[in-house]
Amino acid sequence: MKIPLEPPSRNSFIEKLIKEGDLEKISLFFSSSFGPYDSKGRYSHWDKVRHLAPPEGLSSEFYWHAIKTARTQIAQSLPFKDKSGRPITFSIPDMVMRDILWISENATGAIAADPKISDQKTKQTFIINSLIEESISSSQLEGASTTRRVAKEMIRTGRSPVNTSEKMIVNNYRAMKFVKEYVHDELTESMIFQLHRILTEGTLKGEDANKAGVYRGDNDDIGVYSNDDVLLHRPPVASELPKRLKLVCDFVNDKSDDNKTYIPPVIKAIIVHFMIGYDHPFVDGNGRTARVLFYWLMAKEGYWLMEYLSISRVLKKAPSQYVHAYLHTETDQNDTTYFIIHQLDVIKAAIEELHVYLASKTDQLKKAQLALAGSALKGKLNYRQIEVLKNAIKNPGAEYTIKSHQTSHGVAYQTSRTDLLALADEFGLLKKSKLGLKDIFVAPRNLRDLIREYG
To answer: Which of 163, 187, 363, 432 has the most CB atoms around it within 10 Å of its CB?
Structure first.
C-alpha cells in the first residue's frame, strides 16, 4: 500500500497565479464556480484529482486548488490538533448533510421499524445476533482468523476460547455488552481503560502482557503498518496521551472550550472513532476500542437501530478503503471529512444489509410457517422454538444446547431448557443425546416430514 501523495502548496500556487497576471483565471479561481466535490460529485483527494480530466483550459493543479478553496470556506475546527500542533478540521457539505439526515431517519426510529425488531419478544434475539456479528467482524479486522461458524458456536455455547483469535472475539462480545451499561453516563478515562482491558484480556503477549488498560509508554515502538510493512502512521508521543484522551472525553461530554459549534451526533461519534485511531493510546486493540466507542456514542445519542448493525462486517469487505480514509485525512491538512464520508457510507451499507437480512429472516419464517400450516403443531410453539425449527430446517444435523439457546435469545436457563426439552420429548422434532452431563439436541434430516406428520 502506498501513502497518498500530499497536495501541492496552495499559497505557492496563488503566488504563481498572481505572478503570471492572468486576470481571467485569477477571477475564476476566486469566484464561486467550484464546489467541494469533483465533477462526479466525489470528495476526492489530490491523489485522485491529479489523474482526472480538469475543466477545459485549466490545469489539474488549478482544478484541485479551486476545489480545496471551496472546502476551506466551509471547514470548521475541532478541539483537536495533530502531533505537530496543526488543527484538525471537518466540514458538512450538502451531500454529507443528506447522508446524516438519511441515517437519522433510518436509525433513530423516525420511520416504522420492521416488526421483527420492534416486537419486544423477538427484539432481544436480534440484538444478540448483531452483537455476535460485530464481535466477530471487528476482531477479524484486527487479525482474528476463526471462522464465523466456529465463533458463533463458541459464543452461543459459552465454551472457553482455545486460542488468541477466539479470545479476541469473546472479548469483543463482552466489551459490546459492557458499554451498553453506560449509555446514560459521561465518557471517562477510567471507562476507556476498562473497555480496553476487556478487549485485550489474554491476547497481549510477551512484554506487552501487562499493558491492558494502560497507556503505551515512551519505549513502545508503535506505528501503523500496511500488510507489506509500509509505515502508514506514527501516532503522537506517549507523554501527550493523557491530555489528548481528556480532550476526547471533554468533546464527547460537551465540556471542551473549543466545542462551541453544534456537531450532529453521528459526526461526533465518527470523529471519536477517528481520534482513538489517530492517537493510538494503547499498544494494541486501538481499532477495536475505537469501534466499540463509536457504537456506545451512537446508542447514547438515541440511534437505537445501531444495536442491530455490524459496521465491521462492512469494513471487512474493503479494509483498504478504511485505511485510506485515515490517510487522506492525514495527508490533506487533517481534513476529517474524508473519514466522515467513508464512515457514513459504511453505516448506510450496514443499514441496507440489515434490510436484506430481515427479508431473509422473513422468508425463513414463511417457510417454517408453511411447514407448520398443515400440522397439529400450529399454535403450540413459542417464537423461540419456531426460530430453532427455522434454523434446523435450513441446517440438518445442527446441534443445539440449553446454553446456546439461552445465549441466542437472552432468556433464563430454565426457559431455554423447557423450550428444547419440549421440542425433543413432547413434539419429537429434535433428537436428544448426552455428551457427558450436557444435553445435546440435534436437527434430524427429515424434520420437514416430522413437522408435517405430527399428531
So the answer is: 187
Q: Is the pLDDT of residue 40 over 50?
A: yes
Q: Which of 63-67, 176-180, 367-371 has the highest mean pLDDT?
A: 63-67
User: Which of the 8 DSSP states describes residue 208?
Assistant: G
- DSSP string computed for 86-125: PEEEE---HHHHHHHHHHHHHHSSSSPPPHHHHSHHHHHH
Confidence band for 92, pLDDT divided at 50, 70 and 90: very high
Question: Do 351 and 381 belong together in one domain?
Answer: no
Number of domains composing the chain: 3
CA dihedral 111, 117, 119, 125 (to 10 degrees): -170
What is the domain-level CATH number for residue 388? Answer: 1.10.10.10
Strands 87-90 and 224-225: unpaired
Same structural domain, 47 and 195: no
Q: Which residue pairs from 27-34 have beta carbons closer than 8 angstroms and sit at least 24 positions apart in sequence? A: 28/66, 29/62, 29/65, 29/66, 29/69, 30/69, 32/70, 33/66, 34/63, 34/66, 34/67, 34/69, 34/70
Enter the C-alpha cell of residue 187. Answer: 465518557
- Burial annotation 22-31 (CB, 10 A radius, 16+ → b, else e): eeebeebbee
Range(s) of the domain holding residue 205 = 90-356
362 domain residue, yes or no: no
The mean-pLDDT minimum among 236-245, 368-377, 420-429 falls in: 368-377
Q: What is the pLDDT of residue 249?
A: 97
Instruction: Clarify whether residues 316 and 245 are in a common domain.
Output: yes
Least confident of 267-276, 321-330, 349-358: 349-358
Do 173 and 264 share a structural domain? yes
Has residue 151 been placed in a domain? yes
Residues with Cβ within 8 Å of residue 242, at least 6 apart in sequence: 189, 215
- Helix boundaries (H) for 301-440: 311-317, 319-331, 337-373, 383-394, 402-409, 413-421
